[in-house]
Design goal:
Number of domains: 2
Number of helices: 13
Strand order of the largest sheet: 5-4-6-7-3-10-11-12-13
Strand content: 15-25%
Shape: globular
Largest sheet: 9 strands, mixed
CATH class of the largest domain: Alpha Beta
CATH superfamily of the largest domain: P-loop containing nucleotide triphosphate hydrolases
Number of strands: 13
Radius of gyration: 20 Å
Distance between the termini: 48 Å
CATH architecture of the largest domain: 3-Layer(aba) Sandwich
Helix content: 40-55%
Length: 319
């Protein structure tokens, strides 16, 4: 039985949105109706220079056109089948994650320096380019670098370890250095431009999510402003993941909790804001000898568990 063809809608099909306003939306990085449907009226009003009343009508119309209503769980199951899993390079680590780093989700890795957060980012940046049957997505990656951690030499080692062409692998990685928190937020919008141009992006890496916010917003007096901006930043990433079926991998810094009397005092920066926004939270730490330990801290469907993996010249492996 042939599939039912979906009706295609454009911005100008929305009430109050003419060609000029549609151009403004496209220039701002809105690529489809989903980007409008998931906005709030105040944001759309500012972005398109229209009244909140018109913005509200346009958003409601977009939601109806896309049929963003309640649906039974069998329909949701069909959507879940579109989700891709990007391999970490380690079978143990993949099992911990239910198959790998998932699209339409935010996966956060936090841990002390040297725990393997950026190493995992380099591995994923290569693995996403592999065919699906090899644990990839046959796609490209965007790396938003806030700490100067990206190393093309590391990409070369991992790519050659997998038998890939090094130069071709590098061409499939879009890297941008974020120099402050505003720039970091802007770069997420620029990802939408790449997708609009037809680039097959299936992974966005932000390494790290909190460093600029932590440096720029200091003291308790600025804590609320910092958390609000991080919250908005994460929700932009969440919308990007959902609307374009993209995997978001973010790394996070840590601090030592002085109130922790027993056990590991390591605590992720960002508090509940990042904790609630992340679909999967992974705590990375050094293990015995050269081993690394990954622990599942939070997941909507996976048990709390941990695994051991190793970082070699060729990349992440089981042993």
């Amino acid at each position: 039985m042939p599939k039912e063809k979906k009706e295609e809608f454009t911005f100008t099909d929305l009430p109050g949105i003419g060609t000029t306003t549609a151009s403004k939306l496209e220039d701002a990085g809105c690529s489809d109706l989903m980007s409008i449907a998931v906005m709030n009226p105040a944001d759309l009003s500012t972005l398109a220079d229209i009244s909140e009343t018109i913005a509200r009508k346009a958003i409601n119309a977009a939601r109806k056109m896309l049929k963003l209503e309640f649906e039974d769980a069998t329909q949701y199951l069909k959507k879940r089948k579109e989700v891709l899993k990007i391999s970490t390079g380690s079978i143990n680590f993949n099992n911990l994650l239910g198959g790998g780093i998932e699209t339409r989700a935010i996966t956060e890795a936090f841990g002390a320096f040297g725990s393997g957060k950026s190493q995992l980012a380099h591995q994923l940046a290569v693995n996403v380019q592999l065919p699906v049957e090899r644990g990839g997505a046959n796609a490209k990656v965007v790396w938003i670098d806030s700490e100067g951690t990206f190393r093309p030499e590391r990409i070369q080692q991992i790519a050659e370890g997998l038998g890939l062409d090094f130069q071709k692998t590098l061409k499939n990685i879009f890297v941008a250095r974020a120099f402050n928190s505003d720039h970091q937020i802007l770069l997420v919008d620029k990802v939408k431009d790449l997708i609009k141009r037809g680039e097959p992006i299936k992974l966005v890496i932000v390494d790290s999510i909190t460093s600029h916010f932590r440096a720029e917003f200091t003291g308790r007096g600025q804590l609320a402003d910092r958390q609000q901006r991080i919250n908005k930043h994460l929700h932009n990433l969440m919308r990007l993941a959902e609307s374009s079926n993209i995997a978001i991998y973010i790394t996070n810094q840590v601090m030592s909790d002085p109130a922790q009397m027993f056990g590991d005092p390591t605590k992720a920066i960002g508090g509940h804001i990042i904790g609630h926004a992340s679909t999967y939270r992974i705590y990375l730490r050094k293990g015995k000898k050269d081993a690394r330990v990954a622990k599942m801290i939070d997941s909507p469907n996976l048990p709390d568990s941990e695994c051991v993996f190793f970082i070699t010249e060729q990349g992440i492996v089981d042993e």
